[in-house]
Write a structure and sequence with these properties.
It is built from 14 helices and 31 strands. The chain is α+β, with helices and mostly antiparallel strands and 600 residues long. The chain has an eight-stranded antiparallel sheet with strand order 11-10-16-7-8-15-12-13, with no helix packed on it.
């Protein structure tokens, strides 16, 4: 049974690209968990997509030994994602820890996600060690950054640890700080088993591999366990630790982090945040667990060229088993056939799911523009939630539409404050407060409708601030908005996959831009194609894709003009007939053109 006083459970959190995965690499190297021969960059990131994009998508963990003052310690380290879309991954990881390393780039200072993750750690009542990273860079000013962190987050600058995850400088000081400042886990090894499932992933041969943090008691291979949330019993076939590769051990006891296999077939059979206990000697009180991840952005996936609905469905099921944080339901469209409405944690999450679908299952998908959830109050008093413009009831039955409002924190250079405030106002934002972090950097807090953020807000912010601005948001309340459904008609037929819900004041401008963009994306046919944007029966914008024109009079050399007119009339009748039966090909770019309306 493990000595609790020699265990340290901690997580690394930071803004994206501040060096979390590189620091995890150096810790693995310094503790001897992996050899120099095994070492590779982003060692814990096991997804190809994570390596290509240079970001962490799923929280990864490792148990490493560390010898200090003649004692053998066991460090359970969790490397977390930094992007705002994977905020829930960070909160789950922190529940398995007693302490956290808040990493700050010595050249960039405090960023939006640094603030959000530090607040998560404070709310979880964890011990925080401030780590100033990248001190090897010529532009680094670590002491100034430490003072800035103290001003913004209230963390003691004199207690900061200065490191370079790239060169390994300061890593020994950091590991000693972990021993001295992060408390050992509390728990009673002899009490009835209480263990938290904080993550899970499917395995082709063994079923679901559940990641667990043991709070009280212990369990081993052959034990019959009870999953309290789903009230199901399983026999444990394997327990182990991540060293950093999965390694079987005799048992897991109080304070330890590891994994277990128990013949659980699919992720649907296990609930993240569930409490494990012994079936024979159960605990009386379950652990609090987690709130389920909240989907913020929705879009539809339809089959692309060479892909069948059955293939898309199979790919969706396979991917959901690996990432249960997105949801999908079957939908149908007159223009695109049968597809799936999917819910995501944010735009990056949506992009990653599409990329993984196409790569891992070798299929092509057509993706519609993303939307957010709206609350609709009907005149009958009933309240409904809609995730797509096609679900919006008839406007005559609606009393009001409420849109989700996001609380947005932006950290920007002081000389960009005017441009950023103008951008926020253009997106119907309301300023809450502004705070100077230093003479050159400002933190702005705004309330902005979520539907105004999910399109190109981040791109615009980066452009205005020359790449130095960062933003973090969390969903707040729903508020009444003057929202309308804008339909797009192609060849006089509405294409429901192109419909959008917009604010009435912006409908005409957005309609014109969208129709203009569609005109560029839809190729010319042998007949004229009208493109229209309409609110109800009122057309607010129109463009026309001109028809190809064959010169049917080329063979007429001179002669009576009436012969040419006869040929032109015959051509005109033929085009009219084509117009009524001809199908218009709409490419994938047309469906995504709604995202890039301001690029021109």
């Amino acid at each position: 049974m493990a000595d609790l006083s020699l265990i340290r459970n901690f997580s690394i959190v930071a803004h994206i690209d501040h060096g979390k995965s590189t620091l995890a690499d150096r810790i693995l190297e310094h503790t001897g968990a992996i050899t120099a021969r095994e070492m590779r960059a982003q060692f814990l990131d096991d997804m190809d997509l994570e390596r290509e994009m240079g970001i962490t998508i799923k929280a990864n963990r490792a148990s490493v030994p560390y010898k200090c003052d003649g004692k053998d310690y066991m460090f359970n380290l969790i490397d977390t994602p930094g992007h705002v879309d994977f905020h829930y991954e960070v909160s789950r990881a922190l529940a398995a820890c007693e302490g956290v390393l808040v990493l700050v780039d010595a050249t960039q200072g405090v960023q939006a996600q640094t603030v959000a993750n530090a607040y998560l750690a404070v709310e979880a009542n964890l011990e925080i060690i401030l780590v100033i990273n990248k001190i090897d860079l010529p532009s680094a000013h670590p002491e100034d950054i430490a003072l800035e962190v103290e001003q913004v987050l209230g963390l003691d600058a004199s207690q900061a640890v200065f490191t370079s995850a790239k060169t390994g400088e300061g890593i020994d000081d950091l590991l000693r700080a972990v021993v001295e400042r992060i408390p050992a886990p509390k728990g009673d090894p002899s009490a009835p088993l209480r263990s938290l499932i904080y993550d899970a992933k499917p395995d082709q041969h063994r079923g679901v591999i559940s990641h667990a943090r043991v709070i009280d008691g212990s369990f081993k291979r052959g034990d019959e366990i009870l999953l309290m949330g789903v009230d199901r019993k399983f026999i444990v076939t394997e327990v182990g630790k991540f060293r950093p590769k999965m390694t079987s051990v005799e048992s897991l006891s109080a304070g330890e982090v590891g994994y277990f296999v128990a013949g659980i077939k699919t992720l649907a059979d296990v609930s993240i945040g569930d409490t494990i206990t012994h079936a024979i000697r159960p605990t009386s009180k379950a652990l609090p667990g987690y709130d389920p991840p909240q989907q913020m952005v929705f879009c539809d996936f339809y089959t692309g060229v060479g892909t069948t609905t059955a293939q898309l469905r199979e790919a969706m099921e396979k991917l959901w088993l690996n990432d249960s944080s997105f949801t999908y339901n079957t939908v149908s469209s007159d223009a695109l056939g049968i597809g799936f409405r999917c819910g995501f944690l944010g735009l990056l999450h949506m992009k990653i799911i599409q990329e993984r679908l196409e790569r891992e299952s070798d299929i092509t998908v057509v993706q519609t523009a993303p939307t957010v959830t709206y609350e609709v109050l009907l005149k009958s008093g009933e309240e409904v939630r809609i995730e797509s413009p096609s679900e919006l009831p008839d406007m005559s039955t609606i009393d009001e539409i409420r849109e989700p409002i996001a609380n947005v924190q932006m950290i920007i250079p002081a000389d960009c404050i005017g441009s950023v405030m103008q951008l926020s106002m253009d997106r119907r934002g309301v300023q809450i407060k502004s705070e100077y972090l230093s003479p050159t950097r400002v933190m702005l807090t705004y309330k902005i409708p979520l539907c105004e953020i999910i399109y190109d807000f981040y791109d615009k912010l980066k452009s205005i601030t020359r790449g130095y601005g960062t933003a973090d948001y969390e969903l707040g309340e729903y508020k009444h908005g003057d929202m309308v459904r804008m339909d797009i008609l192609v060849n006089n037929a509405p294409v429901d996959a192109l419909a959008v819900i917009v604010h009435r004041d912006k409908a005409m401008t957005r309609g014109r831009k969208l129709i203009s963009r569609l005109k560029k994306e839809i190729s010319r046919h042998m007949f004229e194609i009208p493109l229209q944007a309409a609110i109800g029966s009122k057309v607010i914008a129109r463009e026309t894709v001109q028809a190809f024109r064959k010169d049917v009079t080329a063979k007429c050399y001179g002669g009576d003009i009436s012969r040419k007119r006869k040929l032109l009339e015959k051509q005109k009748k033929g085009k009219n007939r084509m117009k009524t039966v001809g199908n218009v090909g709409i490419p994938q770019e047309a469906f995504m053109s709604v995202l890039h309306l301001d690029d021109e």
